[in-house]
Amino acid sequence: MKGSGKLPPAARAVVEGDRRALARAISAVENGDPSADAILSAIYPRTRSIPVVGFTGPLGVGKSSLINALVSLLRARGRTVAVIAVDPSSPFSGGSVLGDRIRFEGRADDDGVFFRSMASRGAAGGVAAATLEASRLLDAAGFDLVLVETVGSGQVDVAIREIASTSVVVLVPHLGDEVQTLKAGLFEIADVFCVNKSDLPGADLAKRDLAEFVALGSTEGRWSPPIVGTSTLETKGVDELWTAVEAHESYLDASGERRAGERRRLASEIVGLVRDRVGQELTARLEGDPSLRGLLDRVVARSLDPRAAADRLRPSARPSR
Ligand SMILES: Nc1nc2c(ncn2[C@@H]2O[C@H](COP(=O)(O)OP(=O)(O)OP(=O)(O)O)[C@@H](O)[C@H]2O)c(=O)[nH]1
Ligand SMILES: [Mg+2]
Fold first, then answer.
1. Which terminus of the chain has a lower count of CB atoms within 10 Å, N or C?
2. Average pLDDT of span 20-49
């Protein structure tokens, strides 16, 4: 490990792999606690941009089951793995449990695995930002890769694109009409398709359907998402699924897309942070700062329109300076 002596204690504990410190730092990020700033800032130079693999898809298709199976496979191969479940029912805090969904198996005796659920309350963008920063903490803590589960709720899944280096869209045979709806959104984010529950009838048909769909959108020289059939019940296809994920990760390196993608994501992260901060500050100042209150008064009185007021508030046109 690179010398961690100069780091603030909370950050040092994270990079030294202290689980409780890691859990506390993630909670600070999740709760928007100001103590997160110093930790995130201190650990950032130590992050390596590890693979973050997102699993998304409709309720109950077997995302958690697949992640459990992959964790076993990866641990058997000596890789260390962190799992983040973006979960509205937050299974670790006793939230309501839907049907017979699978929980992540406790592996208290194994330091090479870390499970964490993040409540998906608040805006999708907020969840995405917290998940991104949590992945960064896990990266700094030395994990080889992060697996993220999101429920197929649309916005959060699309936001996962901003975090994951590889997105796996999980489906099952006989989704019927649901597949048609999904095609609009989820399908655009897939780097790998997984048809889970392939022990059920109709799996081959579902794979053929998907293959036709993929062929429609495929472009010469670009990544074309492979379609992998799996059954966690019969432990089939899990190796192949991971092989497909690794193939995409290799493609990212070979094509230069990893660097380009990271650059794009960081730019969008910075813009998002500025938007949040400037927005909060302006909201407060529009009522609190006398010169800006006057501007708002004029808009209310119809002597200025909102766009003209916004123009005057642009950083390059600060009215108060
Ligand atoms: N037949 C069959 N059932 C499966 C398979 N994988 C998972 N299941 C079952 O499907 C149900 C849901 O599995 P989960 O892993 O919780 O699915 P999920 O997508 O994580 O569910 P949510 O997080 O609630 O969206 C459970 O009852 C599993 O036992 C499979 O390969 N075949
Ligand atoms: Mg699940």
1. C
2. 94
Whole-angstrom distance, CA of residue 236 vs CA of residue 222: 28
- The pair of structure tokens assigned to 197 is 């529950």
CA 140 / ligand 2 centre spacing (Å): 26
Cβ(63) – ligand 1 distance below 6 Å: yes
Q: Which token pair is 26?
A: 């993630």
Identify the top-confidence range among 81-95, 183-197, 307-321: 183-197
Site to substitute for ligand 1 among 83, 174, 232, most atoms within 8 A of C-beta: 232
Nearest ligand, measured from the Cα of 99:
1
pLDDT beyond 90 at 83: yes
pLDDT for 166 beyond 90? yes
Nearest CA to ligand 1 atom 9: 62
CA proximity to 282, closest of 316, 314, 306, 308: 314
CA distance 19 to 38: 18
